[in-house]
Amino acid sequence: MAESHVRVLIAGGGTGGITLASWLRRLRPDLELAVIEPSPHHDFQSGWVLVAGGFVDPASTRRPEAEVMPAGVHWIQAAVDAFEPDQNRVRLSDGQCMGYDVLVVALGLELQWSTVPGLAESLGRHGVTSIYRRDLAAHTHRCLQAFEGGTAVFTHPATAIKCGGAPQKIMHLADQQFKARSGVGVRSRLVFCTAQPALFPVEAYSRKMVAIADERGEEVRYRHELVAVNAPMRLATFRVQEPGQAPREEEIRFDLLHVVPPMAAPRVVAESPLAVNPEQGWVAVDPRTCRHPLYANVFAIGDVGDFPTAKTAAAVRLQAPVVAANVLAQLEGRPLDPGYGGYSACPLITSDHSVMLLEFDYTNRPVSSFLVNPVKERWFAWLLERFAFPWIYWNRMLSGLPHEGAYLKPFEGLARRLGLMRWQG
Ligand SMILES: Cc1cc2nc3c(=O)[nH]c(=O)nc-3n(C[C@H](O)[C@H](O)[C@H](O)COP(=O)(O)OP(=O)(O)OC[C@H]3O[C@@H](n4cnc5c(N)ncnc54)[C@H](O)[C@@H]3O)c2cc1C
Description:
Blueprint: E1 3-11, H1 15-27, E2 33-36, E3 41-43, H2 47-52, E4 62-64, H3 65-68, E5 74-76, E6 80-84, E7 89-92, E8 97-105, E9 110-111, E10 128-129, H4 134-146, E11 150-156, H5 166-180, E12 188-194, H6 203-216, E13 219-221, E14 224-230, E15 235-240, E16 248-253, E17 256-258, E18 263-264, H7 267-270, E19 298-300, H8 313-332, E20 344-345, E21 348-351, E22 354-356, E23 359-360, H9 379-397, H10 405-408, H11 412-417
């Protein structure tokens, strides 16, 4: 079997893989670097919410992979079939083997539509939709526009997901659109069914989210996990697990069902020696250096890593410089930088003119890159989400440029003295 070798191999050319490749190219232009990515396209997934809201065209969320691949990086257009870290190599779908000095795993996660009986075959029909599939984002917009009243159900699964705020973003946009159309708002009931015990893991944000839902009359049901869909009958079945009680099933009749599917680590990772364990499947990592605890020349970035924080592109943005520095440190035998503090963010769109930025880190407390109280809906945050973040993604993040918050960091002391950061205590 043919075997090639490269100094640094990045498995996955999505948000994490490309951002990291750009950082490495900037720091060490002569470094031999390859990215394994089967897809000919690169997607800006956060943009799918904006498509569903009717704010942007689906075409603006996709570019050819070749366009985002940094110059000088070797793109291997294949999929990883197996990780063999004891041999320092990966097996590819085209039958080749690729050896490496350092490997970075950036495969993202898998959406498990088929684990909910009746769901996969219903998508795009009978009022069942999701912003978690690019081809359904525009369909979701059409569903919201066509909705004439009735029950709209929005789900959040029991597993970890990417962008924990997205399931609620789409509900708030739907609510606003229904209320804007004569008579539709009063004929509509919006029900948010989450398998989780809270709306968000960071308590300060969760409290605010509950207040927003209450204010709008959106019903929230906790510990409700979607377990079956009968789309022709318009019935969604939930397993309800209240503490101290036996699980029970509850059926809800829907006119519109927006599903966020269960998510898991890619099978190729879960079945490899890199996984924390086969059940959880994520790549084991030191949460601060992003390095594998057993394989010193393996790192992870993005959704695939077992980082105890939310899986977002925002997290990737802050992981990338740390992983890049540590890949070079590993190659040169220097100590690693424990610099990743768990920063993540999922801007919560609450209407077409307000967003709560939802930034936090491993302390599980709100933080702010913009030096303002983040537990607040803001108009300027909407402008960031709608206009600035898509531009920043394509033009700065994927090019390996620092997070905008880095430029405001020197002013943190001043902001504190002026009382702007009082929420931090
Ligand atoms: C609807 C939605 C809204 C979101 N909103 C936000 C938001 O507002 N803010 C935010 O920060 N984040 C948001 N996210 C999350 C963000 O998009 C992800 O967290 C981010 O893309 C993770 O990057 P990644 O590199 O880990 O995974 P991905 O970007 O998914 O990349 C993984 C790559 O690996 C490739 N791959 C898969 N299997 C293989 C294989 N076997 N071999 C080789 N390559 C493979 C895939 O083709 C893909 O290109 C949102 C996501 C969605 C879906």
